Amino acid sequence: MPSFTVTAAGQNVNLDASGSAQASFTVTNTSAQTLRGRFLTKPSEPAKAEWLSIVGESVRDFAPNAAEQVVAQLNVPPTSPPGSYSFRLDAVSEVDPDEDFTEGPSVAFDIAAPAPQEKKKFPWWILAIIGGVVLLIIIGVVVFLLVRGGNGGNATPLVGDWRNVDPSTRSTTHYVIAKNGDNLSVSGYGACTPTDCDWAKSVGGPLTVPAADASDGKFTIVWNFGFKTQVDDMTLGDDGRLAVTSTHTYVDGRAKRIETQFFKEAP
User: Fold this and answer.
1) At the N or C end, where does the chain have fewer CB atoms within 10 A?
2) Which whole number is the average pLDDT over 96-118?
3) What is the DSSP letter of 56?
4) Residues 48 and 17 sit within 8 Å (Cβ to Cβ)
């Protein structure tokens, strides 16, 4: 069992005009002995490691059951591509760094696109034509959705092999979502050696959810592993990534842990 727990003050931070932000974490030594811990910032691709740093000492001594506030500093270059990014804070024991470590929850941030340059005004009649075309497109989309009816709505884009954007994650490596009639079949895999652990072997097979429940690109599944319950809230983002917020509730009295991870569909 890891000696440290890591919690984040929030799931998102906002960059200021200079591309800077700070994210606060609480790192707690849950053991009954004094430990020295190291803090590591871990970006999820395509975020860059050089954007992240620890404010103050990155190695600290912890008394038994003591907590430390840790602040991660973000400095994003102005030329960075717009998009959604994330990172996490890990706590590693200096005594046994290979075995005693904790991955913190993901914290997301967005890089906004530059403000568009002012464009010349079009003649009103061109705007009227564009408005007419847009109206026809909207009508076509509405008719398509009405004809398609209750067969899962927007659930089909969720089907695929979704891979964690962090290839070195020690948590969930990928999900496989398949369409089976009016249901979605979900298989989850965790980081194990030599091959990933298939959660279906622990819960009696892949989990299913009605496709209609995922018509808005969102759904929730619950994994009961015996020693803990894991609730996965899945959302298909506008950027094509699958965001999964996992809430881990343990039966042995350990603190509840929440993490958000991002997944891209395998080519």
Assistant:
1) C
2) 90
3) S
4) no
